[in-house]
Design goal:
The chain is an alpha/beta fold. Among the domains are: about 325 residues, ABC transporter transmembrane region fold (Up-down Bundle), CATH 1.20.1560; about 70 residues, Rossmann fold (3-Layer(aba) Sandwich), CATH 3.40.50.300. About 65% of the residues lie in helices and about 10% in strands. Strands 6-7-8-3-9-10 form a six-stranded mixed β-sheet, sandwiched between helices. The chain has a four-stranded antiparallel β-sheet with strand order 2-1-4-5, covered by helices on one side. It is elongated, with a radius of gyration of 35 Å. Bound molecules: adenosine-5'-triphosphate (ATP) and magnesium ion. Magnesium ion binds next to helix 15.
Length: about 650
């Protein structure tokens, strides 16, 4: 529950008090095979409020029916007979009181159902946000951002509508129908039965539409997700699109997806608009039938005038629910589809960051790393079933289509002493970043063993590992927040201004930051300054330096800076790496020469390992790379000399 209380800080304190109890509920328990059951479980904590709303509906409905009964009394006993005129003021008061009662309980129904729906939605949105953050890297590798955004916004909103309109609406319909039908039936059995003759037709029709709309809506939501993905991808990749002059192509592609969504949306609308006139005709016929029959009976004196007028009023409230029941059933199908789409995410297992041997977290990490014959393959992207239809009828061919994992690390063995620096060298795609990913337990390896300080890596809680290991990623991500916030990100304690500046200086980025109009308070990204690749990387380095980790990982950290800056950074890094284990990934020999151990990787295998001195004397990939780079450097030097002369 402590995890859930964390989220509370993000909520408005006013709302907090109201939701404290509800938020303590783990929504993953609401994932059920049966979608209606799931929707019911999702209401945990709000059921009292919801039942209150339903009760208010019933009371309001009863008040309306009583109004008709009072009308019947007035007509039959006061107006028709001319007696009891003295009662009129009291009767008038009765009408006013009933109207007030109906109004008051309708109001209660309104606010209580809104609270139920909004409350469930707030909780669900918070929970989803939290949950998505805790899903594994593998899950995020396989899932498109647009799809996740779509499910966390549009589908959650469909669920809000479900609770606000449909779940409450069904209660309203049932209350109105039961109360009015029982009343009419009691007043006149024949007219009562006559008022529901169309019921089977409406139910059959609704059921038919329900199936159709479920499928159409599922397709529509998936398509909308595609459109969101296309939009999101193009916005993130707008530079690439422009640089390759691919706007017409991208626009064309987007238009196609958008057109597809339009078509699907149109189909949905056509279904709805077909449903309405048909049910309108049925329901008007029904009302007319009761009214005409009632009128004939009244003329023949079988029922009183008051009874006729009261029944005419009530029959509207029998037919209306019938007609709306169909509409609601059709709309419920959209809630069910959205429920499944949201529950799919909720059902995903979270990355377990806490469990492990807690005793390990109490002693300081020394940083001795051992890899023993480690083999590793990324999980392949599973073939997803797209629509409801397929979900219900899985075929054997589908399961057969699942791709095989491709092994990217083969038989990796090496040992790094505490405090040493190990450099990983290898061509692109050779598996360098993958080794780092394993060390931080972003992914789990399939075979072999990794030991940290002589203890199996799997025994360490992930949370602890990630606190202890600082990583400067290959493509660092900075938040659209102030530079200071970005540098102080994830340190896990209060940091002083001096510490932030010191880290920035060490990463050779202090001067650059001072050059910005608002210094350390400058906002990065969409709302503020745009940084160059090198600047971003240096801020990422400052961020990691401030964390002061026991184990340092640099993934091609100095690749995006010029030679002079690189020298500054390297000087800072050398100081930093002095007394802690460091893993440095680099393409340039100069960067790795001083390492205590160099691993040369090729196609997921370590083909050579040793110090620079050992490796230059051996025939092999290292020597080849070295010779090539020395040659290039000499040529560059000669050219520069030539220009200067
Ligand atoms: N998240 C992932 N899911 C599936 N396969 C991946 C994933 N990340 C990398 N790979 C694959 O694993 C292999 C090794 O990739 P890795 O990122 O470790 O290379 P690298 O040595 O860091 O390359 P570079 O120098 O370009 O950064 C590549 O073939 C790549 O396609
Ligand atoms: Mg890499």
């Amino acid at each position: 529950m402590a995890e859930n209380s964390l989220q509370l800080q993000t909520l408005n304190p006013e709302l907090d008090r109201h939701f404290v109890k509800q938020l303590a509920f783990d929504l993953r328990q609401a994932v059920a095979q049966n979608r209606l059951l799931g929707l019911w479980q999702m209401m945990t904590g709000f059921r009292g409020l919801y039942l209150g709303a339903l009760l208010s509906i019933a009371i309001a409905a009863a008040a309306r029916t009583l109004t008709y009964l009072l009308l019947q009394y007035v007509i039959d006993n006061v107006f028709t007979t001319g007696e009891g005129l003295a009662q009129l003021p009291a009767l008038a008061l009765g009408f006013v009181a009933l109207a007030a009662c109906e109004g008051f309980f309708s109001y209660l129904r309104g606010i209580w159902s809104a609270r139920t729906a909004e409350g469930i939605t707030v909780r669900l949105r918070n929970y989803l946000f939290d949950h998505i953050q805790r899903l594994s890297f593998a899950y995020h590798d396989h899932t498109q951002t647009g799809e996740l955004i779509q499910r966390a916004t549009s589908d959650v909103d469909a669920l809000r509508r479900f609770y606000a309109d449909q779940a409450i609406g069904i209660g309203r319909i049932v209350a109105l129908f039961v109360i009015n039908f029982t009343m009419v039936l009691r007043m006149n059995t024949r007219l009562g039965l006559l008022s529901i003759v169309i019921m089977p037709a409406v139910v059959i029709m609704s059921y038919f539409f329900f199936g159709k709309v479920t499928k159409a809506y599922d397709k529509y939501q998936s398509q909308e997700a595609k459109v969101s993905t296309a939009l999101q991808e193009n916005l993130s990749g707008v530079r690439v699109v422009k640089a390759f002059a691919r706007q017409p192509y991208e626009i064309d592609k987007f238009e196609k997806e958008n057109w597809e969504q339009y078509q699907l949306g149109k189909r949905l609308l056509v279904m709805h608009s077909l449903y309405w006139p048909v049910s309108d005709i049925l329901c008007s016929g029904q009302t007319l039938l009761v009214m005409i029959t009632g009128a004939l009976m009244a003329m023949r004196g079988e029922i009183t005038l008051g009874t006729y007028i009261a029944i005419s009023g009530m029959v509207v409230w029998i037919v209306w629910p019938l007609r709306n029941l169909g509409r609601l059933i059709v709309q419920v199908s959209t809630g069910l589809v959205s429920y499944r789409r949201v529950a799919d995410i909720l059902a995903e297992d979270r990355e377990d960051i806490k469990s492990g041997n807690q005793a390990l977290t109490e002693q300081p990490l020394l940083g001795e790393i051992t890899f023993q014959r480690v083999n590793f393959a990324y999980e392949p992207t599973p073939v997803k079933e797209e629509t409801e239809e397929k979900k219900e009828k899985p075929t054997s061919t589908e399961t057969a289509k699942q791709p095989e994992p491709i092994e990217v690390l083969h038989n990796i063995s090496f040992h790094v002493k505490s405090g040493h620096t190990v450099a990983l060298l290898g061509s692109t795609g050779s598996g360098k970043s993958s080794i780092v990913n394993l060390l931080l337990r972003f992914y789990d390896y399939q075979e072999g063993r990794i030991l940290l300080d002589g203890v199996d890596l799997r025994e360490y809680p992930r949370h602890y590992l990630r606190q202890q290991i600082g990583i400067v990623e290959q493509e660092p991500f900075l938040f659209s927040r102030s530079i200071r916030e970005n540098i102080a990100y994830g340190v896990g304690r209060e940091v002083t201004e001096e510490e932030v500046i010191e880290a920035a200086k060490a990463a050779a980025v202090h001067e650059v930051i001072l050059g910005f109009p608002e210094g350390y308070q400058t906002i990065i990204g969409e709302k503020g300054v745009t940084l160059s690749g090198g600047q971003r990387q240096r801020i990422a380095i400052a961020r990691t330096l401030l964390k002061n980790p026991r184990l340092l990982v640099m993934d091609a950290a100095t690749s995006a800076v010029d030679t002079e800056t690189e020298m500054h950074i390297e000087a800072a890094l050398e100081r930093l790496m002095a007394n802690r284990t460091s893993l440095v990934i680099a393409h340039r020999i100069q960067t790795v020469m001083n390492a205590d151990l160099i691993l040369v990787l090729d196609k997921g295998r370590i083909v050579q390992q040793g110090t620079h001195e050992e490796l230059v004397t051996q025939e092999g990939l290292y020597r080849q790379t070295y010779d090539l780079q020395v040659k290039i450097d000499e040529e560059v030097e000669q050219e520069v000399a030539g220009v200067l002369v």
